[in-house]
Structures are given as structure tokens and as C-alpha cells.
Amino acid sequence: MKTLYSILFSLLFLAHDSSPAxxxxxxxxxxxxxxxxxxxxxxxxxxxxxxxxxxLDSFAEATRDLGGYxxxxxxxxxxxxxxxxxxxxxxxxxxSKSKKVVSPEDIATLRKxxxxxxxxxxxxxxxxxxxxxxxxxxxxxxxxxxxDSFILAKLEQEGITPSPEAERSVLIRRLYVxxxxxxxxxxxxxxxxxDSTPTAYEKLVDRLLANPHYGERWGRHWLDQARYADSxxxxxxxxxxxxxxxxxxxxxxxxxxxxxxFTIEQIAGDLLENPSKNQLIATAFHRNTLxxxxxxxxxxxxxxxxxxxRINTTGAVWLGLTLGCAQCHTHKFDPxxxxxxxxxxxxxxxxxDKNNKGKTINVIEGEVFKNRHPSLTSNSSPAQDxxxxxxxxxxxxxxxxxxxxxxxTFLLTRGDFTRPNKELGxxxxxxxxxxxxxxxxxxxxxxxxxxxxxxxxxxPLTPRVTMNRIWMRYFGRGLVETEEDFGIQGxxxxxxxxxxxxxxxxxxxxxxxxxMHRLIVTxxxxxxxxxxxxxxxxxxARNHMLARQNxxxxxxxxxxxxxxxASGLLSETIGGPSVHPPQPDGVYAFTQAGKKxxxxxxxxxxxxxxxTKFFRSAPYPLFTTFDAPDFSSVCTKRAKSNTPLQALNLAxxxxxxxxxxxxxxxxxxxAPSLSARIDCxxxxxxxxxxxxxxxxxxxQFVSQTLSHYESQPDAAKALSSPELTKAVGAPAQxxxxxxxxxxxxxxxxxxxxx
Amino acid sequence: xxxxxxxxxxxxxxxxxxxxxxxxxxKILQQDAYAxxxxxxxxxxxxxxxxxPQAAKAKNVIFLFMAGAPSQLxxxxxxxxxxxFHGKTPPKSLMEGKRFAFLKxxxxxLGSERKFGRYGQCGMTISExxxxxxxxxxxxxxxxxxxxxxxxxxxxxxxxxxxxxAPGRPSLGSWATYGLGSASRDLPGFVxxxxxxxxxxxxxxxxxxxxxxxxxxxxxxRGKGDPILYLRSPKGIKREQERNFxxxxxxxxxxxxxxxxxxxxxTRINSYEMAYRMQSSAPELMDLSQESARTFENxxxxxxxxxxxxxxxxxxxxxxxxxxFVQLYHTNWDSHGGPxxxxxxxxxxxxxDVDQASAALILDLKERGLLDDTLVIWGGExxxxxxxxxxxxxGRDHHIDAFTMWMAGGGIKKGYxxxxxxxxxxxxxxxxxxxxxxxxxxxxxxxFDHEKLTYRFQGRDFxxxxxxxxxxxxxxx
Lengths: 754, 477
What we know:
The structure holds 2 protein chains of 2 kinds.
Chain A: H1 2-16, H2 27-38, H3 40-43, H4 59-62, H5 81-87, H6 104-115, H7 146-158, H8 168-179, H9 186-194, H10 200-209, H11 213-225, H12 243-254, H13 259-268, H14 277-282, H15 299-319, H16 338-348, E1 360-364, E2 394-398, E3 411-412, E4 420-421, H17 447-454, H18 461-475, H19 496-508, H20 513-521, H21 524-527, E5 552-553, H22 556-567, H23 621-625, H24 644-652, H25 654-670, H26 674-686, H27 692-710, H28 713-719, H29 722-728, H30 731-744, E6 752-753
Helix pairs in contact in A: 2-6, 8-10, 10-20, 11-12, 13-17, 15-16, 18-19, 18-20, 22-25, 24-25, 25-26, 25-29, 25-30, 26-27, 27-30, 28-30, 29-30
Chain B: H1 2-16, H2 21-33, E1 60-66, H3 80-84, H4 92-95, E2 116-119, E3 124-127, E4 140-147, H5 153-162, H6 172-180, E5 190-195, E6 219-220, H7 239-260, H8 264-286, H9 293-299, H10 308-320, E7 325-330, H11 345-367, E8 374-379, E9 383-390, E10 394-399, E11 403-409, E12 416-418, E13 420-421, E14 428-430, E15 433-434, H12 435-445, E16 455-457, E17 460-462
Parallel strand pairs in B: 1-7, 1-8, 4-12, 4-15, 5-6, 5-7
Antiparallel strand pairs in B: 2-3, 4-11, 8-11, 9-10, 13-14, 16-17
Helix pairs in contact in B: 7-8, 10-11
């Protein structure tokens, strides 16, 4: 490793060293991480662990006279105590017990910075949003909107050209998956390919943004953050009925509810004047916390845990900050005091619920939004929800409610609910001092004040964090890679000006999510090909510069939904109680209590994955296998694993075999010859024709498979279904088509947005 | 093939966090200066064998998790004074500031009805309910002074597995496979088996990988038939046709890889190949027909009948085949005194379920030369109270201040008793081992400094032991 570092080190230096002596070091870029990683633990904001009365996290503190000497003496590295101690090998800093060592290169950087005057900067994420103009670029015909100018300007600096636009067939599949989470039909692809008007792409984008499946696709990301599930969690994990909240999220996305209103209704809908029923349902956001139904629990303990979860979730979702760190002590790295944590906590310490048992309201199916069976695309699905809506389902949904007289909030020592610090006296609700606008702690504040603070135009974090996450979904990585940590330990933005431009534009567009989606997906940056480029391997292997798109594996839900699309089984019904597609026996072998799972036989068998009932202690296997979390706590970003269990799931799950049979039937109905069926399958699954190589591979596979089944009539019968055999004519041919369909549903391409 | 080289290169860069410009420069220096140990994971092969930074004493771990918390006072910890004061109110000084799950405050001391004896050279006290444990006393380190922080089952099980009482952190097995990978190419590196009347409380969060990549999540195997879901090819697809199918999928993937040059497709190709191999290796694992009659007799089970004993045999077979971490859950030890959980016949039954096979596993591993490399851990999420809890019968409530676990094998002293409790069994008088200490010691045996094995998540370097834990040096061989 050492060797690699030194090579990279010299490479980077060469690249950067055009004027080494003159380069002005910047605190945020060059210095902060050195101090933060090595020193702040004992010389940072946390007073409890402060050593030697020396803080290095601000200019005033670091340069304060400590009796003839100071941590940092601007302009004079040799007189600065920190340099002396880092180089002093008898009594070295950081101390050896910390197991941290500052490298000579870092010490040299610190020296140079002190020499240059040791200028501090506030952490970038807390600074106001800069209103940037899109930069000028040399190549003027590439940018389609300001996003592209920012991306291109940086590429031009590095002498890199952007990738060409992806093929149109790739673009339409990309848009369908990204905006709806479904695949386009071959007819939709063909119409798009044939549309030669200059605004064909933009028209497609507008059509998809108006499609109600958009709310399911983007609502799902929000539900991850809301830790939405259909059960209580912990050990007993009984069912709960929170689906009206899920429907509210879908509808709010479809209505393009402005993000500020979306925030207010979820955090404090119940505190609005004469709240509508939907505004009450929105507050279920924070009732998605767990309930421990185990015997012998202390309700107070779980009440406190739920309140802490609510503040930690709020911090993660809106502020991109790890507030949880300040639960037990003042944040070691970010300017969040222990006390401030409990002032934020005080907003959530007023609930009437204990162990998350409290206020509920009754909701009737169809009450959140009416039109659940929109006629959507030219491709109307064969399966329609036949359930009798004369007998609508009812749900008793948990919503937020505050006590008439607020509880006293005390700082909990080490975050322990049995150790309230009564000497400090009661704390009142308030915002974080480092985050504008000021919201000092004051008696009588409530969640509505918190919500308004979160979406105040001066608050720089909410729009930055929100835009960064949207960007992450489209490019596979945020402009700030640590999308969950905008604090000091997080990574710096790769394109800080673009991030601020997006944040400012978000507010200028009156917090319209759809406007921002439209901007991003119509950019030339988004439309680039995702093919890897050999010229970038060494220069930008991880594609930080975005000289191409990224290939992104589908989320678990899209894996199912895409297969439903391709096989033609999809039920397009939106909303309502959660459903039970087939799942194997034994899913509950490992849970404390068995669960009811009445497998659906009608159209509900083919509903989108967002409607599959989710038990936290034993999720539907496909979800876990494809990296869906268990929703015990906030999830802002999912992992993307690539495992053998995924292969087994797609290849052998009876649900996917059923999809393969249905796809086989579709191929048989829609195409006459073998070659036409391979083409048709490619169109249905990948929205493109096969290459010659792919066609050859499948032609050979089909011919081998057919001769196999001709000698194995029993196997052929077992794999096919009577309906399919009847349609195709012979069992061997039917089984061969199932094999073809199964292969098409099992490639990397099928579960990847290219 | 050039692609593989490129793949490696890409992954190398990815792990180093190298972007461009001086940001990257800082990052490199930062990582260089940072003295922690962050394993380099190749996303294409996350279970590749990795060497720990220190010499390891154990390669594999088998954790026999006694879900529900066994009563140490009726199995390992003989308290004559408790019998003497049976029926009396416990001393006030011992009860002050204590919180219990179910006790109301008027309960009285409960002496054990079980007969105890001293066994082996170490003179460990074992009750009559564990006759087979009497045979392994001198193979084992007895931890008589265990303590934990939380007294409800779900949170306490999470604490014992992840060092944190709420869901969301990686479990021990995830940390172990994250650090070391696994020697098995054909089976998962972290396997969970379960027996008893019901699943353990808190379910899959107990073997969840938390913020670690999901490749390190425990894979629950069922004790009978197909151990994992979807292992079997669909009806009507025979093995030869399946090979044909896998070849075809692989060729289609290869074609796309050549077109897009995305190394992730190489991983997909590898995943499908391993899936195909698992279709034979997993049934081979489950096929106990080659095990001898003597083995079944020693473990006390019928071949293939789901039981804790059967799972113990599977655990040994998994370790033989290279699986890094095997965890067995057995319910139900929750002896409150209610129906199905009394301290009499119900307790005797669960003791019978577990006693013989636990001891047989140790002796079997020893006989096969596997014990030196395999760390075996036995215990529940907490202990049980010295006071009786009155339900339908008298049982015991949850107790977090003193309970017993044992460890054996790789790097652990043989025949050693560590720690003791006061005369009534309320608290630890010496040799206290907190859950964090247990975790620190397990990582030490696997070759890691528990303070250095970290993963950066949400801006913080997380450890299994958070900011706590000390290696229990006294129990190291």
C-alpha cells in the first residue's frame, strides 16, 4: 500500500504543482481533515474530552495565548505548539495511546498553512448557498442547461471530453426505470425511435413525469427515509396499518406537492390550523418508529428511544447530519453541542404516544386519493384489480399528537434515560446554532417551528441535502458522496458550485420536485452513455467528474416490477392495503411469532413491490436479497450487493418461474418464428434488438434446449403450463420458450439501468 | 485477459478513495496517517480470504446462542446461601437502583432445587441437568462473571450480537467475515441455524450486516431439506440443462461486459457461477448419510431430524468446509415460571435438547483436530434473577448483572474458571466480563485489535465495541 500511496502522491503533486510555492492552502480543502482526524477528539468542540484547555477548531481558540505560547502562531510554524508537539518524539502528539500518527506530509501541509497565516473557514455545508452563474465553457454546443455547463467546465479543466449521448433505446429504458420504475413496451420504444421532432425527448420526459407510477417510483425512496413498514419491529413484530401514509407519499409526489409543504405536513401537519385528514395522515412519518411488544418492557425507555429516533431521522433526512453522535456527548467533529441535541429532542419529547402507542385515526381505502385505476399507457395490463371497492378496506393509522402541557425535557447524561441532568434545569425546544436561521431554544416552541426552520430559505442544508440525494439516484453517487454526512467528517462536494446552483434553483422553482427531476434528466450530462472508457480508467476510475453516466443495478422493488412489466402480468392499481404475492414456506422459521400470509390469487398477486407487505423481522426474501433494509431506522442510501443468493432468487424463485412462463406465452403470441421471438424478448426485456453475438448465443441455446426436451417429455411438461403448451403446440417447444424467457430475465442487463 | 486487470485496478482505486486534485491528496494522507485497520474489500469477491493484522489464534467461530437466557443459578453457579435464605426478602442494599423486566418488588429469594457437583481438575460446579457438560469442564473457560446492559430480550440479543441495543449495527459474524473473508468458495461465510419451539426474538436483525456491505450478512440455513431458499432448479430443469442455462447467461453477460466494460458484470458472472456450485455444495453439506452411527450417538440425535444436535453436526461440517462464522440459536430458555417456561419440566427439556450436543461438538472438534482453530462460544443474552418470579409456577426474571457463559477452542485456556459472584448471585465480585469485553476478546482471537477494526459510516469510524471493551487477557491460552 505504501508504494501505491507514494506513487499516487507524486503523481498528484506533479499534476498540481504548476506553482507550488504560490499555492494558497484552503482550510476546508487541505487542512480541516488533518486536524479533525488527528486532533479534534481531544482538542475539538467537546468540552468533556477537552485536554490542556486547547481547542484547534477555531482561529480564536487555536491562537489564544496559553501563557507564553499558543497552539498556532499565524505565520510562524516554528513557534506553533502543535507543530512542535507533532515533531517532538519524546512527548508526541497525537499521543501514542490514540494510535494515530500524523504523516510527515501532513505536518508539512500544516506548516505551510500556518506560514500562510493559518486562515480558518467555516465548514462549507453551513455557509449560505452561493448563487452561482453557470460557467462559460469552450465547447458551447454541448450544454443543454446550466447543469451541463458546470459539469463541462470541470471536464474541460482536466482536458476530458464528455461521452456521447446514449442510444435512444437506452435512453427510453433509462427514463422509464428512473422515473417510473417500469420498463417501456416495445411500442413505446418504437414510437420514441420514430419521433424525429427536436423535442421528442422532452415530450417523453413530460409524459413520464405526469404518469402516476412516478409517485410509486420516487415515493419509494422517501419511504426508505421514513422507515415505513407494515409491522411493529423488535421481536413480536405484529402487523400495523400504516399504508394510508404510504399512499399519501405516493399522491404527494404525483401532485408535485412543493417540498416545503411536504416537509411541514409530515413534521407538523397536526399542528396546522384546522388540519385536513390528509395532513394528519402525513404525520405518520414519525409514527413509523418501532413498538416493542415484548413483556416486561419499560414504556418510558421506548418512548425516549422513539423520540430520539425521530430527531435522528429528522437530522439525517433534512440536514444530512449525524445528530445521533450528540446523543451521548457533544459531537466530536461537528458543531453540535450535547445540550443542543436535547433542545432538538425537546420538539419530539411532547408526544402523547408511549412506546409508540398513542393517537390513531381511521382511514378508509380511497380516502387519501380517489383514482386508483388510472388508464395509463397504451399498454394496458391484462390483470386488473377486481376487488370490490364497495367494501373498502379500513385502517387505523398512527398519527402524531402532542400533550396539552409539554413534558419537561432534561439533558440525559450519556444519552441514558435513567440519568436526567436536573441540575442543568429543563431545556426548551430550539434549532442548531450552526445552522441558519437562528432558532434559539424557547419555551412554547413546537414541531411546526422546527418544520419551518428546516425549510426556511436561509437554511442551507435542506435544499443541498435534498438535491444531492436526487442527484445520487440518477448518477449512482451524490455530488457529496457521503450523502448522509454533510458534517466535517463527510466528503467534500465534487462540484460545489453545481450543488449550490441546484439548491438555489430548487428554492427558485418553489420547491417543485418535478421541476428539478426534469432539469436533471433533460441535461446532456444525464443523457451520456454509461459505457466505461479506457481513457478515463487511470484519470477518473470512479467517475467523479461525470464524463459518462453510470450503470446502476435496480433496487429490489424494480427487480420485481421490471419482471412484471416484461412478462405482461403487472397490475397497475395504485395504493390500498398491502398485498401478499407468493413466498416460500419457511420465511418465518426464524421469527419469534409466525405471520399470516394469505397468498393472493387475483390481480393482487401481480402488484408492484411497493405494495408487498413488509414485516420487519422477516421481510419478503427478494427484498433482503437485493439490499432493501429492514426499515428499523432511517435509510437514506441502500447498498448494491451482487451475490449468489440474487442469482438463485432470479433463477429459481417460483414467482420468477411464473414470470418466465408468462413471458414465454407473450413471445409465442407476439412473434411467429424463433428469430422473431428472440428479438421480441430482447425488446420486452432490454428495449433493444440483440447483437449478432447475443442472437447467436440464444439461437444455439434454444436449439440445444429443444433437443433436450424432445427427449425429456416429462421434464418439458413439468416446466410448461397447460395454457402455454396449448398456445405453443408442443410441450418441448413450450419448455424451450420458458428457458429462453428465464435466460432473458437472468442477465445483468435485465436488472441494470444502463 | 485485460479486463481482470482493469477490474482489480478499479477496485483498488475505489478502496483508496482516490478522486482528483488536492481533495484526494488529503484523503490519501488521511488514510495513511490513520492507524486503524480497514480491510480492503474487492466488491467482486467480498469473501476473498484476508489475513488479519495480528497473529490469529482462531480461524472460525461457532456461537451456540441460548436464546431466552438460561438460568446460571440452576446450571453453573451453585449458591448454598441462596438455598439457606430461600423465601426471604433480598437484602435492600442489593436491590437499590436495580431495574427488572417483570419483578414487582415483593419477590423473595429462590434457592435452586438442583444438585450440583464439582468436576474436572478445575473443579467447576455443574448441576445435574447438564451431565454431558461434566465431561468437557477441562476443555473450557468458564466465564462466571458476565454482565450486560439491557434487560429485554430483543435489545439484549442485539447487544450480545452487535454491541448495540437497537437494530442497525453489524453483528459479530458480519464483522468477522468483513475482516477475514471466508475459506469457502461454495458456501456462505456466515451461516445461521435455528432450533427450538420458535425463532429468536429480533429475528434477522441479529445477523444483519448493519452498515457493512450486505455480502457480510448472515445467511439463515434451515436445518432440514434445502438449507437456503430457491436452491433447487425449477421442476423440469435437470442438471445438464441447468449447466446449459448458466453457460448461456454467462455468455450473454460476457457480451454485455465486452460492450460496456463495466467490471460489475464480471462480479455478476462470478455470482452466477457460485450459485451453480452452491446447488451441489449445499445439499452435500446437508447430506448426513456419510456421518457415522457413532457420531449420531455422541450428539444424541437421529440423522436429519431437525434439532439443536443436528445443527451442531451441521456447524462442524460448515467449519470443515471453510465457513467462517456459524451461529446456532436455540429457544426457549425464558424460564419465568409461566406455562411452557417453568423451571421444572420445561427447563429440563431445553437442557436435554442442548447439553449432550454442546459437549459432543467440543469433543468431536477436538478429535478431528479442528478445536485448535475453532472458537466455540456458549451463552444467552443475559442471566436470571436470584429472586423467584411468581407466575403459574415460580421461575426467574431477567438478570443483567451476573450470568455465565463459556468459551472453548482456538486460543482459549482449557479448564479455567474466570470470575465469581457474591454469595447470592446478585453481582460479580471478581473477573467481571462485560459484553464489550467478550467482543474485544473474540476479535483479538481472530487477529484484530478491536479498537482498530473499523468501518466508516455516516462520518464516523464505527467499531464493534464502540468506545468500550477490554481484551480479557486472563482467559487466553
